[in-house]
Amino acid sequence: MRRFAIFSLLALFVALEGRTVRADNIDLSTVPSRDTVQLTIYNSEDITLVRETRAVTFKKGLNPLQFSWANTLIDPTSVQLRFLNQADKLDLLDTTFPHAKPQMLYWNVQSEIDGAATIEISYFTSGITWTADYIAIADADEKAMGLEGFVRVYNNSGEEYENAQVRLVVGTINLVEKIAQLAQVPITDVAKMQSDKLEEFKKDATRRFMEKAGGMGGKAGDLDAQKAKEIVKEGLSEYFIFTIEGTETVPAGWSKRLRSLEGKAVPFRIQYRYRPAEYGDQLVRMYLLTNDEKSKLGGSPLPDGVVRVFRASGKEGLSYLTQQAIKYVPIGDKIELNLGPDPEVIFELIKLRSFRDELMLQVHGTSEFRKVGGDMVIKQENASIAGWDDHEVFTQRIRNYSGKDIEVEVRRTFPGHVVFRSNLEPKLHDYQTVEFLTRLAAGKRADLLFEVVHKQGTSVKQNNVTLQTGEVKP
Amino acid sequence: MRKWFAPKRLLLAAAVAAATFGPNLLCPSQAQARVKLITLPVRERVEIQLDNATATLVEEERIVPLVKGENQVDFSWANTQIDPNTIVFRVVAPVGDKPLDVKVLSVSYPPNEAALIWSVGSSDSGSARVRISYLLGNLTKSFNYRAVASKDEKTLVLSEYMRLQNFANEEFGSTNLFAGYGKTFLKPIGLNETKEMLVQKFEKVPIKKTYTCNVAEYGWLDQPQQKLRVPMHYVLKNDKANQLGAHPLPYGKARIFIDGGGEGGTAFLGEDWGRFTPIDDEMKLYLGVAQDIVVKRTLEKNERKHVSGNLFHQEVIVKYEIENFKDQAVTLDVVENLRHVRNEVRGDSGRDVEWELGKETTFQGGPDKERSTFEQLTFHANLPARAKDGKAEKITHKLHVLIKNEW
Description:
The complex is a heterodimer. By secondary structure, chain A is mainly beta. Helix content of chain A is 8%, strand content 52%. By secondary structure, chain B is mostly beta strands. Chain B has helices at residues 28-33, 215-218, 338-346, and strands at residues 10-15, 38-39, 43-49, 57-66, 69-77, 88-91, 102-109, 115-122, 126-135, 139-149, 155-166, 172-178, 185-189, 194-206, 208-213, 220-222, 227-228, 231-237, 252-259, 266-274, 282-289, 293-308, 311-324, 330-337, 354-357, 376-383, 394-406. Chain B has a 6-stranded mixed beta sheet, with no helix packed on it. Classes of the chains: A mainly beta, B mainly beta. Strand 16 of chain A pairs antiparallel with strand 7 of chain B.
């Protein structure tokens, strides 16, 4: 059901005083139909720019046009009229929003011609959204995968858009900043705006951005019925525009999903990771791939979306592995899929020993310190332990029953003043996080020994980890 | 609205009217007008993959007739918990000798319906073998075990069962069920049906029957008399040497029986939760508290040794007086958590326990290195059978430990 329409009004009885709200009781209208529609949909904001063209016949003099949008989610302040041809002979004199009819406006157009012209009406609506999602099917030997990306367009705007060209804006968009850049307005000025003015500014700036993004595309010819539609991706400034080939009809209330990318035999590698800050206190199995041409991807960034990961069983069937939300992946960046723990790889941290040394006494009532057990052994009565080193010796035990050689990366965070001693060739991921890597053959067990020395009390001089190479006795 | 889906819960319909289709199939009015004839491709095959710990994947194979050009394939799932976002449509091996180039062009989701419509392009008229995969809720699995010990309690027969509960509001005919290991089952699964299947049966699995005292973990049987609880376990190791080790043993309830021999049949010993047991790890099944092994634990010595300032060592001797009233000799595992000991004698400092064993420790061979940790020691005490007159020999052991560098 069409809910909004434009009428060319032929008022017969009243002189055309265009600047007053119409109060005629008897009217005659013609209804110019839509020729083309273009939807430009954001996924980070509930905002869609609609541009439609219609052919309207004007007569010389004043031509009133009525535009109404009952039961839709159009922002009335965003509606704009533009003349695509005969623009020098047509003038929009004014726009009137009648008090009694909130979802309607009148334009008065002064024409120097008797004849047809194409007009463009643009406006913002909400309720049209899109999301991305992905399906990854790994080969049975887990060396390569098929990765398909999809876009799904939802139309809850209350209006049906027939044969619309659909364009999707990819990118995590902070409207204020990005649009401010486009509009070349200093961000400080944006911050000072009142909220209603800011909203208006955002919309205006968005419109400018959309205008930069290109004009209205025409209807594509009939497509080959066997061929899936291509989604053309083009970069623009910080954004990517996905344009769906041809036109689409998305009826009100429906949604439609189309393939946006298809990567066949995309190579990936497997790594096991222990990163409690990212994946919780467990060793997880990861599929690691890259969004680049070498990996048969890289045609565009990958928008935020959920990846559902399967593995082919080798007998035409699938195994479900996991689903994971990924953030926007730029071209060239990594895609990291967390498959969760693997019951066939056992990861245990075992504390082997714990002891203390470098015990320092502080003599009561003084700032004098004495080391316990040092050369200057004095049995001191009036003193308390003020500083010491806590030693903990661990083995990071990994058992690999997976049937394949594996690579394991371990990150452990040690707050405080810490010395990390081992022969594991670790490196510092950050000032308090140690990272080391090991490879483990199928069916093997590894015991990775390390000693952690925590400086305590007055012995604490830093808040960081120092790496030391050295043998660790179990 | 596609009313013809109502009688079935989960249904695939291929609308064969390609010649009348325009490029835009999704307008509701067109959707009604387009249906001149629909075919209802039946399930040729169903596989249920239960290898994921938290989700159940259903794969159904159907042969879908297609015409050259664009086709509409409707899939609906009224009153079932299919996650629509997980539905995957794949074309697998061709039907007959005529391979078709079949592609999903788009998927449309009608409002307020558990349904979707695939727009499928086909290079020619013919049939395509398709697999539709989806995650289905309320079709769950769990595992349980039946363990029958031999009369001498040296081995047991371990049967592992998978229990499938179908509250998904959908029935499946003959269905391949796969737990991720072991064999595949071919079974029908009815509505609201629970089905239990024997996944694997392991014969003559060697077991150890253990008696353990550990005041920190198992507590006292009679604290005023300082008598410890002595729980009993069957311990089986999940490795090849012990007839297992093919895969990790999943978490599940184990019902434990003992073979009485002869016509006595089996006797129920109890049940326990078998924890998830990786390969090479041990599964311990709790059998209850031993009544015939009495362990009295006392702290014989507690002496502070001053080092300097407020720093001291604490010397502790824990004494165990053990009597075995059973008719056979057994080995008792004596486990002592040194943090618990330190907390008993001087309270908790929050620091790890630094310790060394003293000379008065009597357990031969010292602590079992495989079973001891940095703060918990396991010793083994061999206990002879009681004498013929019924008297039990009192065995006394001591654990002498120096708890160091406390303040």
